[in-house]
Amino acid sequence: MTTNTTRTNTPRPLGTTGPRVFPLGLGCMGMSALYGDADRAESIATIHAALEAGVTLLDTGDFYAMGHNEMLIGEALRSAPAARREQALTSVKFGALRDPDGNWSGYDGRPEAVRNFAAYSLQRLGVDHIDVYRIARLDPDVPIEETVGAIAELVEQGYVRHIGLSEVGADTIRRAAATAPISDLQFEYSLISRGIEEEVLPVTRELGIGVTAYGVLSRGLISGHFTPDRKLAAGDFRAFSPRFQGDNLQHNLNLVDALRKIAEQKGVSVAQIAIAWVLSRGEDIVPLVGARTRERLTESLGALDVSLDASDLAAIEQAVPADAAAGDRYPAAQMAHLGSK
Ligand SMILES: NC(=O)c1ccc[n+]([C@@H]2O[C@H](COP(=O)([O-])OP(=O)(O)OC[C@H]3O[C@@H](n4cnc5c(N)ncnc54)[C@H](OP(=O)(O)O)[C@@H]3O)[C@@H](O)[C@H]2O)c1
Predict the structure, then answer these.
(1) Which of 82, 97, 199, 248 sits 20 to 30 Å CA-CA off 192?
(2) Residue limits of the NADP-dependent oxidoreductase domain (predicted)?
(3) Which fold has domain 14-335?
């Protein structure tokens, strides 16, 4: 096994119509929501450090703590040096409906809702356009053509540059792509979440659509840092994620132990192996790392220094075979909104 010490920063295309981006994007969700408390100053410092390291894509959702995450990114962009601010590309999800208690109540992909969501996001981010705009989940009551058509109008008006998709299946991808150019599909993809491989990835590749992969560390589960005794705050996604429950958790952490042996042999961390594996899946895939501290960011960026040869990949596959995880990647009610397992 060999470790490459040259960082591979070559930009990757977001599909045939999207921008070329730094090979890792920064997912900012955990800086506001779903993984317990985050430190605001450290979050902003992490965004600045990411831009300084060359990261271009900053991913968010307008529903991450009801606008909090967009305002955080807006503040980070305003306080960044001009050159760094200009290199940043915003990737924004919309459509999820919340109430003041934070409860989730479905999705809204109607054209008038799309325009409304976009108007608020532009304001919160403090930008004159959003680089990639996408509905977080398909609204079952609104044909995807109408939602994508509304974003395409925002593209014509200059408020959005590119249209993305999130967690939709093969048929929806085809219908969306027949409506307007699609830059990338956002989808959970990791060593233990490989549902995208069977039907979805062949379609994105056929249509020249890129993939922004999230949950590459399975929300910290396969980062090498998660321990069974970790106390999760109320509202932490992991407190009700099937993979973090009871026997499933120990089963999944045993997979991490198998991965750790490979990481140790290569002199890298478990998180770096997991991120490098997603990077190795193809130039059309851009992992979004959910680092919310500079320390975690540095570790994530180190994955760009890791090269995996055929024997490494075989060893990883043996340690963590596809479908090895115990438990679905979302609770049942949320699985129902996904285009693939
Ligand atoms: N389209 C969608 O449906 C969807 C869904 C979810 C997320 N996303 C996007 O994808 C982004 C990434 O997703 P994610 O946050 O679930 O991904 P992730 O990278 O799998 O998980 C992030 C969590 O892993 C832990 N971690 C441990 N070591 C790490 C390291 N070296 N680097 C980064 N994180 C490390 C962190 O938890 P601790 O800080 O607690 O240690 C962090 O909160 C999100 O920020 C969001 O923008 C999209």
Answers:
(1) 97
(2) 23-319
(3) TIM Barrel (3.20.20)
